[in-house]
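Translate structure to sequence.
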């Protein structure tokens, strides 16, 4: 049985030092926690830099760096003028989607996410979305879907038709009644489309796509959730096979 000699034991000279985060990062993290736990509410104005610096015991430059970091995370924004200042950002679906899409695009570019994984994720989200849409759709939802289907059918080119096809998918998601589902799914299908390297699909496949849309719409209109889900699943398989 081996024993540890005195020379084997770590000494103050050989211990690794865990460096403390720079002051601006610590300030940013504390403000971030106050925002996320609701102590600072959306739209609320933060104290001026001098007061923030005094509160944290740091310089104005440190506070300014912390605010830049929070601004890059879309947690605060600064306006100029008499009524200007730094404010807690109000949640925005467009900003959220942009952040998700950018992150997914970076991951896909580095092979951190492949097209099959994006397809699987679309299936996990959009198939139940079609199921919920069949249960919760309104007449306004149906009108929106019908209009989208018609625009796809009469698109002037493949790119135009692909854009309107995404409008149809968005209408289905919105009809599900789940706002989070409506927000987080579009960035995934946009990256899926870019990753597939096909801007508008193969023209010969559009009759099949048109048929899929009408089938999904018919099941949603008739409030047949199981059939709507199955039709959406088959439609997504068609899109994946044709890299659309």
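Result:
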């Amino acid at each position: 049985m081996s024993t540890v000699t005195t020379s084997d034991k770590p000494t103050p000279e050989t211990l690794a030092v865990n460096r403390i985060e720079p002051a601006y990062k610590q300030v940013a993290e504390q403000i971030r926690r106050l925002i996320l736990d609701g102590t600072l509410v959306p739209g609320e104005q933060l104290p001026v830099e001098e007061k923030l610096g005094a509160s944290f015991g740091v310089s104005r430059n440190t506070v300014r760096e912390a605010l830049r970091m929070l601004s890059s995370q879309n947690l605060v924004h600064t306006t100029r003028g008499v009524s200007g200042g730094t404010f807690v950002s109000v949640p925005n679906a467009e900003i959220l989607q942009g952040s998700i899409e950018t992150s997914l695009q970076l991951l896909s570019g580095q092979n951190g996410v492949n097209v099959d994984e994006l397809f699987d994720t679309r299936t996990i989200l959009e198939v139940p979305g079609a199921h919920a849409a069949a249960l919760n759709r309104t007449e306004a939802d149906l009108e929106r879907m019908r209009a989208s289907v018609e625009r796809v059918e009469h698109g002037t080119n493949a790119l135009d038709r692909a854009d309107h096809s995404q409008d149809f998918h968005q209408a289905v998601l919105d009809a599900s009644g789940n706002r989070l589902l409506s927000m987080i799914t579009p960035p995934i299908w946009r990256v899926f489309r870019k990753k597939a390297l096909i801007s508008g699909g193969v023209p010969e496949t559009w009759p099949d796509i048109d048929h899929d849309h009408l089938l999904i719409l018919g099941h949603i209109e008739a409030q047949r959730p199981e059939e709507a889900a199955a039709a959406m699943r088959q439609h997504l398989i068609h899109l994946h096979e044709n890299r659309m």
